[in-house]
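Structure ticket #2291
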Amino acid sequence: TVLVYEKPRFFFQDSRLVDKTRDLADKKWIELFYFEKGKTYYINLRLKESLKYGTYTFKIIPHEVPANNFRETAYVWDLKKTLEGKLDYVTDTDWFKFETNETIDYKIIYSREIADAIFFYEEDSNKALPPLDEKLYLVNNTVAEPYHFEENKTYYMRINHLQHRSLGKYIVRFVKIDPRMSLLRRYY
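Resolution: structure written out below.
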């Protein structure tokens, strides 16, 4: 059990626990706390009452600040660049904002870990855009899926964690599709 306290002036208070999950593959607990700059924190590591002794590994890893967990805090992203992101904890959601300067179809290639967790939205809509065709699972552990975007519009991309998938890094790449190509050849 990990207890984190912050010491404001004359008393201790619990720090804000943002998320807690158990990573079954690595046999560990992951807890995310929010720490503010300039404050003093105390960490108390304890065994459960039912255990008499045991060993543990304790590691502190920094995460994204400010977080892009909401549409209002979405990171602005250039479609010409490859996006490399990371889902840090179970309830982590990454939002990205991008604009298009032409009406065009894109083949979006992304990590297989986020295959069911990537969605696109128009600026004023809460309804996810439908893909033009089915997903194509590629041999390099990625997925390709075509989408249509209109000229001079703002779009949002949401990526969230799925319970049955592992936490970690992902990539997203946009590749323009030549308008002269047929639907059958969009993936090649």
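Closing remark: The chain has a mean pLDDT of 79.
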